[in-house]
Amino acid sequence: MPTLSISTALLILGKTDSLPWNCMVWQGLTKVTSISWTTLDYVDPDSPSSNLKEWSVLVTDSIKIYDFRRMFTDNNTAGQHTWADFIKLSIWMWKFNQIVDNVFKDSKVTLYEAIAQVKSNVINLMLTLFRDDIFQKDSLFLVVEIKDFSDAVIVNT
């Protein structure tokens, strides 16, 4: 059973060729067109972030620090809370649960059948979100971080 939250899974996924942030399908669904925590050097900390205008550079930097320190189990609390709150609100605005539900409805199976057929439904969900970016180069295997993200989505939605 995965132990990742969706917000953590998205951070980890962001280290994989900048997925999902550089995927056109994801950008269309979320209206976030680049990596959320990217900032320019030597910019006033109180100025708006270049990618999300509702964040300041200082807030964006706290998320970047949290993402970096998370690997060493030294969490930056401000960044962690800001990122988790952003994803929690954004998941609702992006109608993420509705997308997940629609993929399962479109497969025309009951909940119990969906659980039994979870592999094919997960692949359909990931194709809905990311198209062909889910596969490793020259392979039909899923990118490991995509698999981890899909597990987190299924468990948390």
Give a verbal description of the structure.
It is built from eight helices and no strands. The longest helix is centred in the middle third of the chain and has 17 residues. The two termini are 14 Å apart. The mean pLDDT is 78. It is mainly α and 157 residues long. Helix content is 57%, strand content 0%.
Give the secondary structure arrangement, pairings included:
Layout lengths: L5 H8 L10 H7 L26 H14 L6 H17 L2 H11 L4 H6 L1 H13 L13 H13 L1
Helix pairs in contact: 1-8, 3-4, 5-7, 7-8
Task: Summarize, please.
The protein is mostly helical and 157 residues long. The protein is built from 8 helices and no strands.
Key descriptive features of the protein:
mainly alpha, 8 helices, 157 residues
Low-confidence stretches: none
Structural class: mainly alpha
Oligomeric state of this protein:
single chain
Number of strands: 0
Share in helix: 55-70%
Tally of separate helices: 8
Task: Give the overall silhouette.
Answer: elongated
